[in-house]
């Protein structure tokens, strides 16, 4: 015969079980970024974008699902380290998503891990065009260098500059930038006078810029990883008097990131870049994003395009979790990710092209100007709904 105490305990246990969703689970996301070393700053921006989206929207996940971010430091452009971290995340930690990845060589190293494990890899920076072809489980929410540099080359030639010199970092995105700018510039009637590739480490830009100055092109194009290298490049540009020599400077947005502009003095004034985002944009969605950013991180903190890529990457992951109820089926998750779109991103309308699993987005031509006493990338022209030009020019057989 059941005692009163046992009966009461049974009722309480049944009530507890009913109150706890049967599907309660933790979805783990492995976030691989460069958290240490001289190139850590852009990854910190991505991480902050991820955390901000999670902070605001975790409540929107299906009932019973919570997220756990597992952060891993690849320490820089070290493909072997990135691959090992990805292997540990999928085999030991059982993550359902891999994400982040600043360096293109690291992304390519992780690709076979994602394929073998059938775990989606959401790229939030690495911009080499070929990356999404390295695995059917890759989707990119950032950009490609071709998206930025190809239309910039066309625009530059349209300004009447007939000759150009390119200076890029010697790794995949730099090579992409060099080729993309040259193609766009050449198609519009321009001519490349010279090219140079510099170390991804901490190069001395002075001799390379002096070589360009001696050839006196109408315009110099630059790609580098940004951060401290961008500051070093702009200092060398100023020290050599390139502006005074009548040479213009254009670049991908990495050279004049919104968060580094305050550290560059006046040397970036007038620099034109092409990219998918600027803090100075007046879009209502961007104003809302900035308000949330400043509320969480402080009024003086400045996000950049890396932060927005982290934000949008998390939005895509949330959509995949919501659609699949976090069941961990990588194929189903990729079906959602490869068709994901967001008309209300801080950077404007974005979508994933299901044929390439790459992002389609507006590219803005921006000029560094003074806004309320501070330097800002002011968008003054829009090229709408740009797909990756490299893939358009090099279709898969």
Could you characterize the architecture of this molecule?
By secondary structure, the protein is an alpha/beta fold. It has two domains: 192 residues, Rossmann fold (3-Layer(aba) Sandwich); 161 residues, Rossmann fold. 40% of the residues lie in helices and 24% in strands. Strands 6, 7, 8, 9, 10, 11, 12, 13 and 14 form a nine-stranded mixed sheet that branches. Strands 2-1-3-4-5 form a five-stranded parallel sheet, sandwiched between helices. A hairpin with a 2-residue loop joins strand 13 and strand 14. Helix 2 crosses helix 10, helix 3 runs parallel beside helix 4 and helix 5 packs parallel to helix 6.
What overall form do the CA principal axes indicate? globular
Q: Which CATH-level-2 architecture of the largest domain?
A: 3-Layer(aba) Sandwich
Strand content range? 15-25%
Q: What is the CATH C level class of the largest domain, in words?
A: Alpha Beta
Task: Indicate the mean pLDDT.
Answer: 93
Which radius of gyration do the C-alpha atoms yield? Answer: 23 Å
Head-to-tail CA distance between termini: 75 Å
Succession of helices and strands: HEHEHEHEEHEHEHEHEEHHHEEEEH
Name the poorly predicted regions.
1-23
What level of helicity do the residues show? 40-55%
Relevant CATH superfamily of the largest domain: Response regulator
For the record, the count of structural domains works out to: 2
Protein structure class = alpha/beta
Task: Please name the CATH topology of the largest domain.
Answer: Rossmann fold
Number of helices: 12
> What's the β-strand tally?
14
Please give the largest β-sheet: 9 strands, mixed
């Amino acid at each position: 015969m059941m005692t009163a105490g046992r009966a009461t305990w049974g009722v309480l246990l049944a009530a507890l079980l009913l109150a706890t969703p049967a599907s309660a689970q933790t979805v783990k996301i492995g976030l691989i970024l460069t958290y240490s070393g001289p190139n850590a700053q852009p990854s910190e921006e991505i991480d902050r974008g991820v955390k901000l989206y999670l902070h605001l929207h975790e409540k929107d996940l299906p009932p019973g699902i919570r997220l756990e971010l597992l952060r891993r430091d690849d320490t820089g452009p070290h493909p072997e380290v990135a691959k090992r971290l990805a292997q540990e995340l999928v085999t030991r930690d059982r993550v359902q998503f891999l994400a982040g990845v600043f360096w293109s060589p690291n992304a390519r190293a992780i690709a076979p891990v994602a394929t073998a494990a059938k775990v989606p890899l959401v790229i939030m920076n690495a911009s080499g065009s070929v990356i999404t072809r390295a695995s059917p489980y890759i989707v990119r929410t950032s950009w490609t260098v071709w998206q930025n540099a190809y239309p910039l080359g066309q625009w530059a030639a349209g300004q009447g500059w007939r000759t150009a010199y390119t200076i890029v970092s010697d790794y995949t995105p730099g090579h992409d930038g060099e080729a993309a700018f040259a193609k766009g510039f050449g198609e519009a009637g321009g001519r490349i006078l010279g090219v140079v590739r510099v170390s991804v480490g901490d190069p001395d830009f002075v001799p390379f810029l002096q070589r360009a100055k001696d050839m006196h092109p109408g315009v110099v194009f630059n790609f580098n990883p940004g951060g401290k290298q961008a500051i070093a490049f702009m200092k060398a540009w100023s020290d050599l008097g390139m502006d005074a020599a009548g040479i213009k400077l254009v670049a991908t947005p990495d050279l004049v990131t919104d968060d580094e502009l305050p550290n560059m003095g006046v040397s970036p004034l007038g620099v034109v870049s092409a990219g998918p985002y600027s803090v100075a944009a007046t879009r209502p969605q961007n104003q809302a994003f900035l308000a949330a950013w400043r509320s969480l991180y402080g009024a003086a903190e400045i996000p950049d395009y890396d932060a927005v890529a982290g934000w949008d990457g998390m939005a895509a992951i949330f959509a995949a979790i919501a659609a699949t109820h976090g069941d961990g089926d990588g194929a189903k998750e990729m079906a959602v990710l490869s068709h994901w779109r967001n008309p209300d991103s801080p950077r404007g309308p974005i979508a994933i092209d299901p044929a390439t699993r790459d992002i389609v987005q507006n590219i803005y031509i921006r000029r560094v100007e003074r806004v309320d006493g501070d330097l800002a990338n002011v968008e003054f022209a829009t090229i709408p709904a740009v797909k990756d030009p490299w893939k358009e020019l090099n279709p898969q057989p």
